[in-house]
Amino acid sequence: MNCMGNMKYLKNNLFPVWKRFFDVQSKKKQQLRWIEPGGFKTNVSVYNSVTKCKVPLILKNENSCTWYMCGPTVYDSAHIGHACTYVKFDIIQRILTEYFNIHPIVIMSITDIDDKIIKRSIESGKSWKELTRFYEEEFFEDMQSLNVSKPYMFCRVSEYIPHIIKFVDNIVSKDGAYVTKDGSVYFDTAKWHTYGKLNKPMPNESHPEKKSSLDFALWKAVKAGEPSWESPWGHGRPGWHIECSTIASTIFGNTIDIHSGGIDLAFPHHENEEAQSCCHYDIEQWVNYWLHSGHLHLHGDTKMSKSLKNTVSIRELFNKYTANQFRMFCLLSHYRNGVEFSDITMQIAVSTLKKFESFISDCDNFVADKLCTGDIDESLLLQCLSETKHRVQSAVADDFNTPSAIHELLNLISLGNKMLHLPKDPSKSHSKSSIAVVSNYIIFVLLKFGISYSVKSDANDHKLKSVIEELVNFRSSVRIRALEQGVKDKVLLTACDTVRKNLLIHGIEVKDYKKTSTWNILREVKMMEN
Fold first, then answer.
1. Counting CB atoms within 10 angstroms of each CB, which of 18, 224, 251, 466 has the fewest?
2. For the chain, what is the domain count?
3. Over the stretch 364-422, which tens digit does the pLDDT of each residue have?
4. Rounded to whole angstroms, how far apart are CA atoms 485 and 502?
């Protein structure tokens, strides 16, 4: 096509689209706003995706919040990008419950009918139901292994088809959507005055069936060989966005406190959900607070995505790391920020978790009088603890700032470690209660974030600990005897070091001091491979 031909094409096809778009957008500019909801004020501030700043979290009901979460499209295994999103929102839900006595009622969708599902079904020779049920069960198992709290309810799209048809029909009756010749239904974005709340939409090339390239499918006309359902517009299936709107509205009604998902869903998915739901209910605001998590990246700016075929499955993650280590990885970055997954960033998480575990172990041994060191300034330690509690509370209340909270905890254990490893002053009385209080607080906070340090205690476990105790005591006696010789017995000391290293491989950490040794069963055994 020559230059004149290009200009003619642009004039006839794209220029009208852009002119219409900017005319509509100029009228909408002053109308896009966030409406502060009425209800119960909390002590939490959250980032608002509409105002682009932090605002107070106000809930419809005291001590509870309605929360809708976009769930998986079950045509393949979930990857660690998904895991990062679900773990981060699980942490937020735990913070609301544990710190602010707010109990989220979480509904999660399961998309079990979709273009990708149909394609994979054809490729695999399995029915779409057989395919989706397999990956659905796998997803549930993955979430359990990550210690992600189970939502109040999982909702399959295929079980809400009658509700979806009724929802679409209502929008059509309000003249908010139009039906095309093939029986598809599109939302008319030009007629919705607040379209573009979450992200400024940009038109692309026009579609022959659409009034605007921004218009999106509420109902898709059936194609040969695809699963379909009967509707007023002919056989077909739901569009992607209408599925979430219908499920969330069926359960929560015309207002939702919180709606969450990855930042990639802000537009078009969440924008379209908001527009069609507001049109359906004749309201200005359907969701009061949108929470979006940042992307998980590989190698700098490469987003992890099934379409890019660069994913690491959740089960592959567990070949090298534990759920607690991955959760610490998530805690060390703000939920809204993108984060790079690599051996380096995971090693930071592993090392951070190890610092906590080592400190807790030293505290236990100090209280049990198994440490030969320790000079505790009780007043200073308890003052630091009080300040840490206040700062952690402030951090989680400030848009769930977990990196800041972890930083405060590390500062506290740094002070505690210094005191634990100072030489004992025989002239002083050594109170152990302050160390126990600090250790208990650290465990308590990590539990609130979903990191568990509990160890099952049964008869067999008790016997195992007794055996370990005898072994470590025997080794300690040999080591002390080897050190007391006029010339150190290098053969015995090497043998003691070998035992210590071999025990560590099996998750038993032995620490040597001048005339004593302590031991601890590590809760996190999987470490970085050298």
1. 224
2. 3
3. 999 988 888 899 999 999 999 999 999 999 999 999 999 999 999 999 999 999 999 99
4. 25
* Residue 4 within a domain: no
Within a domain: 118 = yes
Is the CB of residue 374 less than 8 Å from the CB of residue 419? yes
The parent domain of residue 363 ranges over 343-454
**Tokens coding 483:** 């050190």
Reported residue count of the chain is: 530
DSSP 8-state class, residue 148: P
pTM across the whole model: 0.84
- Please check whether residue 175 is in contact with residue 152, taking contact to mean a CB–CB distance below 8 angstroms: no
All residues at 6 or more sequence positions from 331 whose CB lies less than 8 Å from its CB, including other chains? 91, 402, 403, 405, 406, 449
* CB-CB contact of 271 with 199 (8 Å): yes
Contacts by 458-461 with C-beta closer than 8 Å and gap 24+?
none
The confidence score (pLDDT) of residue 251 equals 97
Residues 214 and 90 in one domain: yes
Residue type, 243: E
More confident residue, 136 or 513: 136
Q: Tokens for 49?
A: 């995706």
